[in-house]
Specification:
Layout: E1 5-10, H1 15-25, E2 31-37, H2 46-49, E3 61-62, H3 66-72, E4 75-78, H4 84-96, E5 102-105, H5 115-122, E6 136-137, H6 140-148, E7 152-154, H7 158-173, E8 176-186, H8 201-204, E9 209-210, H9 219-228, E10 237-242, E11 249-257, H10 263-273, E12 280-282, E13 299-305, E14 311-317, H11 321-335
The chain binds NADP nicotinamide-adenine-dinucleotide phosphate.
NADP nicotinamide-adenine-dinucleotide phosphate (NAP) is lined by residues 11, 13-17, 38-41, 79-82, 84-85, 88, 106-107, 157-158, 189-190, 192-194, 319-320, 323-324.
């Protein structure tokens, strides 16, 4: 029998927090949400913010003290903005690291191993740099074994997941070289629940808007991962674009490979690499697209070799699910193998 797991979700009014609640709900009685925290909406029903959960949960947002969260929870998900996340989660981690409890963070605060690199890309001095060596990067397609026993998971970024999955098979194969070029489009939910100048509907609904060009904070975590996977590349040229959709990322990744492979050869490499990866679909007969993975933890990926011999990969995923909450919940499933989370296996809708 599965043991009841008590979960707190910090930053639960946000889009990431809402997706964690949605996915965990599908685990039924195996999981009890003890705290869905918010500083601004304590006492408000969760379903007021996350309308998909109305008449599904009568949970209310709350704003308990850290001691209460620690006492009541077996698992703590952080869905807080980077910068503030480490301030909240580091003291919680200090308290849980020698217990059976687990922290899974969706923010960028524990993804990078080097505090100087964090400062450079996040423009913020890390409050607890020593913890960067202790966090496990929550990419199941690379770190599954380390995730099983981790106490602090740094769940990868949304864009980063699309780049990681596009490059990992050739990085591990030892044939990735040069500076990969990435252009990726994302939906508006990637910017969080609060409307900002660059994410407000009228300013982005009818346009394709590049932003943080060659300067997006997800680049260093991808470089770090492909280096750990055995590649010598030290940069990635990345152009992110806001697209007029709500959910989804479509990435176009072009990279040099050091062996004269044909498309069939790289398809074999990707199929083999992802053979045991439940959520990765390697496509060879159609293009990846956002509609077929929206709301799901699945990823569509299509590798090819261009006539000039370069690697060309298209990758589609849902930024809030495999690119965020879904991947974080997937990590929990890896740590608790007897736990069934049907929401992760939901195939989505079509059309
Ligand atoms: N959106 C995505 O597609 C996506 C994908 C992967 C990873 N992520 C990462 O996941 C995290 C959450 O993203 P999101 O899109 O869910 O953001 P969001 O919609 O802006 O929600 C953030 C939540 O954190 C709370 N909060 C804000 N500042 C806080 C602070 N200093 N201390 C405590 N609580 C604070 C807010 O609620 P109150 O103000 O009511 O407390 C809010 O509920 C971010 O680090 C983001 O980078 C997001």
């Amino acid at each position: 029998m599965t043991q009841l797991i008590r979960v707190s979700v910090l930053g639960a009014t946000g889009y990431g927090g809402g997706e964690i609640l949605r996915l965990l709900h599908t685990a039924g009685d195996a999981i009890r949400i003890v705290h869905a925290t918010s500083r601004s909406k304590a006492g408000t029903p969760v379903s007021k913010m996350h309308r998909n959960l109305s008449q599904i949960t009568d949970l209310q947002f709350s704003n308990p003290a850290a001691e209460q969260i620690l006492a009541d929870s077996d698992v703590i998900f952080g869905a807080l903005p980077h910068g503030g996340a480490a301030d909240v989660l580091a003291p919680l981690y200090d308290a849980v690291k020698s217990t059976d409890k687990i922290i899974i963070d969706l923010s960028g605060d524990f993804r990078l191993r080097d505090a100087d690199v964090y400062k450079e890309w996040y423009d913020h001095t890390h409050p607890r740099p020593e913890l960067l060596q202790e966090a496990v990067y929550g990419c199941p397609e690379f770190n599954r074994e380390r995730i099983r026993t981790a106490k602090l998971i740094a769940s990868p970024g949304c864009f980063a997941t699309s780049i990681n999955l596009s490059l990992l098979p050739v990085a591990v194969e030892g044939i990735l070289s040069g500076v990969p070029q990435v252009v990726a489009m994302t939906g508006s939910s990637g910017s969080g629940a609060d409307a900002k100048e660059g994410t407000h509907h009228p300013t982005r609904a009818q346009t394709l808007r590049p932003y943080k060009v060659l300067d997006h904070q997800h680049v260093p975590e991808c470089v770090q991962l492909v280096q750990l996977a055995g590649s010598r590349i030290d940069s990635i040229s990345f152009t992110p674009i806001s697209a007029p959709i709500v959910r989804g990322i479509l990435a176009v990744v072009v990279a040099d490979i050091s062996t004269a492979y044909k498309t069939k050869d790289v398809q074999d490499i990707y199929r083999k690499y992802f053979a045991d990866s439940r959520y990765i679909k390697v496509l060879t007969d159609r293009e990846p697209e956002c509609a077929s993975i929206a709301g799901t933890n699945f990823v569509e990926i299509r590798p090819r070799v261009t006539p000039e011999g370069r690697l060309h990969v298209l990758c589609a995923l849902d930024n809030l699910v495999k690119g965020g909450a879904g991947q974080a919940v997937e990590c929990l499933g890896i740590m608790k193998p007897s736990l069934k989370i049907p929401g992760l296996d939901w195939p989505g809708t079509w059309p």
